[in-house]
Amino acid sequence: MRFPFPVAAEIPLYLAPMAGVSESPFRRLCRRHGADVVVTEFLSAEGIRRENPATVDKLRFGEDERPIGVQIFGADPQAMGDAAAFVTDVFQPEFVDINFGCPVKKVVKRNGGSGCLKDLGLVADIIRAVSRSTHLPVTVKTRSGWSEETRDPVGIALHMQDAGAKAFTLHARTRTQMYTGHARWEEIAAVVDALDVPVIGNGDIKTPEDVVRMQRMTGCAAVMVGRGSFGQPWIFDQAKALLRGEPMPATPAVEQRFAIALDHARMVEAYEVDPVGAAIEFRKHLGWYAKGLPNSADLRRKLHAVKSFGEVEGIFGDYLTRLQRGDFGDAPTGADDSSELESAAA
Ligand SMILES: Cc1cc2nc3c(=O)[nH]c(=O)nc-3n(C[C@H](O)[C@H](O)[C@H](O)COP(=O)(O)O)c2cc1C
């Protein structure tokens, strides 16, 4: 399936847009560990067109993140078009993605995100307005419907394709479901059958094996990984190998895992202007990196109190010394605990 922008992989792996997580340093890290395409967290069209400094700041990205999409949300077609024009002129990403999936109350109450799903006429107006305002491909990300009663992923997808969407990402849950229940992968398969444009499958990928299962079950052109990347960016490299029919690279052992976490921390330190705020914000990532490790409750408690990146190195060093001394018994050292990952994202 031809993508609307150049991408090397046969079945590209996307890092999902995630507010507060898929920021520039994490996007770069995931690109280094095998993600083929990244997307910014959702950004308000009003904030962009008014050049709100906090919003514009989140538009910064490095060349090593490309191909990258900037995701925008809003319910006013004119504002969405203006935002797309600004993003195109100033930042030149590979594509502009429209968020029609966000379930958060503050957003849907103004008809942004999945709120738009209640008015498909408005959805089409937004896609057309954005497409008129940029020469870049315009893609969309949405859910299966607003509620169980109005669940209609194929109808929604065809409507968005007709309005000009050049690729379609489905998180196969409704807005009312938020993050409960399961993503219905059979809905992704139905949309793949119905559309001419590439479909990106999304929802409940927790392991590299899940990537292969989703792709085989649905025939989707690409797979998007969200919460499954938390604390384990190497999931992309592992999934890639499996998709190619090659043996899966081993899950990094504790020492390598800490080295990757520190690499991530250094990128955050270089990117953010407020070092204390950045270290505090980074605590959630540290918690995810520590999940499933022996004696992880104690490790996480320490990591959740850090106020500087320097402290992290010390905590990791102490932990490794104790691990090597055998203080934690002979518990496994590299196992991932996906049930913990799930609860972290709920
Ligand atoms: C913390 C968090 C923030 C998110 N922010 C966004 C966002 O900004 N834009 C968006 O389209 N989806 C957002 N999502 C939804 C994800 O992109 C994805 O659709 C969802 O998590 C399902 O995929 P997963 O099961 O692989 O996590 C967010 C999800 C999480 C957990």
Automatic annotation (TrEMBL):
Enumerate the residues binding FMN: P17, M18, A19, Q71, K141, H171, G226, R227
Q: What class of enzyme is it?
A: oxidoreductase
Q: Show where the DUS-like FMN-binding domain sits.
A: 15-310
Q: Which reaction does it catalyse?
A: a 5,6-dihydrouridine in tRNA + NAD(+) = a uridine in tRNA + NADH + H(+); a 5,6-dihydrouridine in tRNA + NADP(+) = a uridine in tRNA + NADPH + H(+)
Please list the GO terms describing molecular function.
Answer: flavin adenine dinucleotide binding; tRNA binding; tRNA dihydrouridine synthase activity
Pfam families on file: Dus
Q: Which domain of life is it from?
A: Bacteria
Question: Keywords on this record?
Answer: Flavoprotein, FMN, NADP, Nucleotide-binding, Oxidoreductase, RNA-binding, tRNA processing, tRNA-binding
Q: Look up the EC number in the record and give it.
A: 1.3.1.-
Residues annotated as catalytic? C102
**According to its UniProt record, which cofactors does this protein need?**
FMN
Say if the entry is tagged with keyword Metal-binding.
Answer: no
**SUPFAM superfamilies recorded for this chain?**
FMN-linked oxidoreductases (SSF51395)
UniProt keyword Heme present: no
Q: Please explain the role this protein plays, according to its UniProt record.
A: Catalyzes the synthesis of 5,6-dihydrouridine (D), a modified base found in the D-loop of most tRNAs, via the reduction of the C5-C6 double bond in target uridines.
Protein family (similarity comment): Belongs to the dus family.
What is this protein identified as?
A: tRNA-dihydrouridine synthase
Organism annotation = Gemmatirosa kalamazoonensis
